[in-house]
Amino acid sequence: MRFTGTMKVNEKGHLEIGGVDTVDLAREFGTPLYILDEAEFRKNCREYYHSFTEKRPDSLAIYAGKTLLTTAICRLVDEEGLGLDVVSGGELYTALKANFPMHKVFFHGNNKSPEEIKLGVEAGVGRFVVDNLYELYLLNDIAHAQKTRQAILLRISPGIEAHTHEYIKTGQIDSKFGFPIETGQAIDAVIRALELENIELKGFHCHIGSQIFELDSFAHTVEVMTEFMAEVYKNTGFMTQELDLGGGLGIYYTAGDNPPAVDALAEVIFNTLENQCQKLGLKVPRVVVEPGRSIAGPAGSTLYTIGAIKDIPGIRTYVAVDGGMGDNPRPALYQAKYEAIVANKANAKPVKLVSIAGKCCESGDMLIWDIELAEIKPGDLLLISNTGAYNYTMSMNYNRLPRPAMVLVGGGRAELIVRRETYDDLLRHDLIPVHLKNRKVAQIY
């Protein structure tokens, strides 16, 4: 397994993160356990902050909250100078409770409810990223009722299919997100937005997908978007002030993944943008980017305890852990791949090919197929790396499994930032109707 961040093997032969022994973490907090490396998370935030603001001081990197969001995460993101991208009332409420500066919040989503829009307008979010005409007019009405003028970006579908998994492509024409350029709906949305009294159009947003390694995809996106900006200026006289290019930069999960550096991404975006604006006679707009996976992904790991080991001679050895698709549904959803290590035997050489199974009652609950690990036995600890993105936020209670705790580690300390769910938590919203409360147990015939 490739080590990331502050990972290292200590004198006991155990894996440690942030100066904390993972064996001690399991003993104190239990497993499964999400572990977040504070130093790595902060370093990744700073790379975006410096790579973009040093090239153009008015640029803004906003962290994509859907990747991993808690009140503690909001505090880290704010301290590192980034803004925040939220996609629901729940994410916005989390930011509010963490006292995140609302002027640096961008509110996304393809079907915001009237209640969510009202919450965002009342909170004073910096930008609404408007996805459709229904939302545009609804937002205008709510802003009018609140006696305010709401700044927005229009989400545009640039017609670009990035090389990534089918489920995480978002920039193509056939997508639930945004106004397509090719159909004429994008320019129509611009015209309508400019007519509304309580809407202040600032510019445009696009996002072509996630886990992208080819920087040419981002350069091509800039080219398409600046050509659209020129079309808008020609037809309406509106000069784009802000261009939000979304996120999508890939990270390392397994051998063969070669993500480019953040600075290289910034270089490609700014060079292409400046050349295009000069060629098309446009003012260079403020650039906004929305990293998520590339900040949280490498900073997160998940620690499990190994239970049953089932060897099927000539077929496969299944190693079951005390978690699975409940805390990481990504392998089941879109065949995501991960690396792992026996954390309490971090110095030991891999000797056996096994597959890591979860404990859910689903044959598809497999975390890793075919990985070489050190000699293992029940009670050993397995750590899967690079799980910071879309694990906790997509976790669930399938089979009534409580969701894991999360700890922030750094400087030799570990602090809870999410408590482990209990069985009582699982029942917290259950209700028994009155007509069932006093009913006797049914007789079985």
Automatic annotation (TrEMBL):
Q: List modified residues, type N6-(pyridoxal phosphate)lysine.
A: 66
Q: Where is the active site?
A: 361 (proton donor)
The residues the record assigns to binding substrate are 293, 330, 334, 362, 390
Q: What is its EC number?
A: 4.1.1.20
This entry's Gene Ontology molecular function terms read: diaminopimelate decarboxylase activity; pyridoxal phosphate binding
Query: For this protein, what reaction is catalysed?
Result: meso-2,6-diaminopimelate + H(+) = L-lysine + CO2
Q: Which NCBIfam families match?
A: lysA
Task: Describe the family membership recorded for this protein in Swiss-Prot or TrEMBL.
Answer: Belongs to the Orn/Lys/Arg decarboxylase class-II family. LysA subfamily.
**Functional description taken from the UniProt entry:** Specifically catalyzes the decarboxylation of meso-diaminopimelate (meso-DAP) to L-lysine.
The protein's name is: Diaminopimelate decarboxylase
